[in-house]
Specification:
The structure is a single chain. With 126 residues, the chain is mostly helical. The protein has one domain: Four Helix Bundle (Hemerythrin (Met), subunit A) (Up-down Bundle), CATH 1.20.120. The radius of gyration is 14 Å and the shape is globular. The chain starts with a helix and ends in a 9-residue tail after the last helix.
Length: 126
């Protein structure tokens, strides 16, 4: 299965998790959907470390779309990573509103990354 297809599946699962009350699952799935999208779009990425992916994302966005946008993308990516860590490894339990907000941030950031790093601003289907 391609990373891009898995990213799409995880994003849909995150949406369903919010509706079914699995809020921590939604937070985790929304982050991993974003991460897999970034991994797919960053050419030559040789790491699976989240902070290194954030740095690579920063460099690519800066090169194509400018430093201000790159800083914002990296900051938001790392915020979502930290929320995912809370969901998966900490005693914190997310509420429906928190999970929905994190999902919305993740979807928005995903659109921004795709818009910057692809030719036409969209991902191939299939």
């Amino acid at each position: 299965m391609s990373k891009l297809l898995k990213a799409e599946i995880l994003l849909e699962e995150a949406r369903m998790d919010v509706e079914h009350g699995s809020y921590n699952e939604a937070v985790s799935a929304s982050y991993f959907s974003l991460r897999l999208t970034a991994e797919h779009l960053i050419r030559g990425l040789m790491t699976t470390k989240d902070d290194k992916i954030a740095n690579a994302l920063y460099r690519e966005i800066k090169r194509k779309c400018g430093e201000e946008r790159a800083k914002r993308v990296k900051e938001t990516y790392l915020f979502l990573y930290n929320e995912r860590k809370k969901a998966d490894h900490r005693p914190h339990l997310f509420t429906k509103d928190e999970a929905r907000r994190i999902l919305e941030i993740s979807e928005s950031l995903r659109r921004e990354i795709v818009g910057c790093l692809t030719e036409r601003g969209d991902l191939p289907t299939g």
